[in-house]
């Protein structure tokens, strides 16, 4: 079991940011309204994720670390779980296989909490404790038992920036959840969770961008697109500012990027790329999910429709003053 978990971990856990991603997605699934992600040394030596979600009962804790154990019933078409597709119930077992894990968890309706320790896939202890409602995961010494893999990690600074980017995207995709990111004891990001996307954009990108946003609100043929398109004057030097989410999930798609850029074609961009934060809601059946889950690339079965909708939605926002 331990060996199989180590191999499986290679698929899911590439770097500290992959752990943070899996744990925070679990927090979101657990209905948390506030999540704190703290790392030290880029997350290589220390990751702590704290949420105020539903917590786990003591008897469920060891079970959650077994491979293929999940409390979530999912259908293959369920787009909201695209990135964990194929890895159902594998995150915790994979993380525990390659690090030293301490878990403190307590459901609100339970009298006591549970502290659980598991290292390199071996259970160390399970105890009753006093704890706040919710769940805290502590992950120490990533890849301590797989030195070959540890060698592939980049510098702490690079790994930390991957985690920061990830939290940024999670904050943009879930304005209704408060996210805090702490790197080496310094708070880098702290969103309010008040549900206002513009507030989150202001927090992350600052005043210049937040004060030049055009609202996107579009619906056609089962595709709904909301969010913001930046005015052409705040265009940036690379594609990194084209943010878009499909059913709450951050993705990369050449089709969508192209559609966004084409919508700006009528404006002088001087080889620059637009700023956007777009939320697309699409029927799960129209998206091909047969793509490696840890990669964010995905393909659509109806590319042309997606292209047209995005281009039209953004174009409409850009031209709204002229109407
Ligand atoms: P999956 O998310 O695919 O179910 P995981 O290995 O990520 O698999 O998690 C296993 C189980 O552990 C989850 O199904 C859930 O029941 C429980 N769990 C994990 N993280 C949390 C959390 N933060 N709060 C409550 N329950 C959690
Ligand atoms: Mg999970």
UniProtKB/TrEMBL annotation:
Record domain DNA mismatch repair protein S5: where: 201-319
A GO MF label: endonuclease activity
Domain of life, source organism: Bacteria
Keywords, in A-Z order: DNA damage, DNA repair, Endonuclease, Hydrolase, Nuclease
Keyword Methyltransferase included in the entry's annotation: no
Coiled coil: none
Keyword Cell division: no
Purpose: This protein is involved in the repair of mismatches in DNA. It is required for dam-dependent methyl-directed DNA mismatch repair. May act as a 'molecular matchmaker', a protein that promotes the formation of a stable complex between two or more DNA-binding proteins in an ATP-dependent manner without itself being part of a final effector complex.
Family: Belongs to the DNA mismatch repair MutL/HexB family.
Protein name: DNA mismatch repair protein MutL
Biological source species: Dorea acetigenes
Gene transcribed to yield this protein: mutL
Region of the whole protein represented: 8 to 330 of 637
